[in-house]
Amino acid sequence: MPAGDINPRAGRALDGLTIGLLGGSFNPAHEGHLAISHEALTRLGLDRLWWMVSPGNPLKSGQFMLPMADRVAAARAVAGADRRITVTGIEAELGTRYTADTLEALARRFPRVTFIWLMGADNLAQMPRWARWQSIFTSTRVAVMARAPYTIGALGGKAARRFARSRIPAGKAGLLAKQKVPAWVFLPIPLHPASATAIRAGWSPRRGGSG
Q1: Does residue 126 form part of some domain?
Q2: 10 found inside a domain
Q3: I need a surface site. Which of 115, 119, 175, 188 has the fewest CB within 10 A?
């Protein structure tokens, strides 16, 4: 297990905590991830936040991907000394490929932890393409972060409409952890210009180009 990762025997130490989960390929991690993490920690009242570096994204199979160990190391460098943020490759350990399966596995391993799934508005817009996407809302509280230019389309999209009655006002985001599922909130956070796609576009051809 990489240093700083989630100890599988740490369950009791985490009991009663509210932990945000920010999943993704982190290919690579950047200051935008850090910015939304700090917003989530503050607005949702999180005790901790896990950056879950995915072995791969089923919807981005054709994209050039750095080795997972490199992505984890780079994410830890970006997270820096913020002890509230843990960068983990736990999804590879769990052997899960889809978010719905990952969330179910985490709930079994840490039954006394309240998890909140974090994602950008771009992911909310494409969520109906995810495997068993409705079970994500019915099993785990969800916080959606604003991201240009996807916000308007996402909030009018299929997923948002399906669970419209479960959405709580942004002003009550700090109470999300106390809500019964399904429950979700949209956070109109300040937009950050950093983009993994733009960063990859600047890579040399030897590193795979923009993918």
Answers
A1: yes
A2: no
A3: 188
Answer yes or no: are the C-beta atoms of 121 and 155 closer than 8 Å. yes
Does 150 reside within a domain? Answer: yes
**pLDDT per residue over 105-129, tens digit each?**
999 999 999 999 999 999 999 999 9
What is the full DSSP assignment across 54-112? Answer: -S--GGGTTS----HHHHHHHHHHHHTT-TTEEEE-HHHHHT--SHHHHHHHHHHH-TT
CB 23 within 8 A of CB 54: yes
Pairing of strands 167-168, 184-187: parallel
**Helices marked H in the chain — which ranges?**
11-14, 31-43, 68-79, 90-94, 99-109, 121-126, 133-139, 151-155, 158-162, 196-201
| Selection from 145, 140, 182 nearest residue 162 by Cα | 182
Sign of CA dihedral 117, 13, 30, 168: positive
Which CATH number covers residue 64? 3.40.50.620
> The domain containing residue 183 runs over which residues?
15-207
Q: How many domains does the chain have?
A: 1
Q: Decide: 16 and 51 in contact? Cβ < 8 Å.
A: no
The structure's pTM equals 0.86
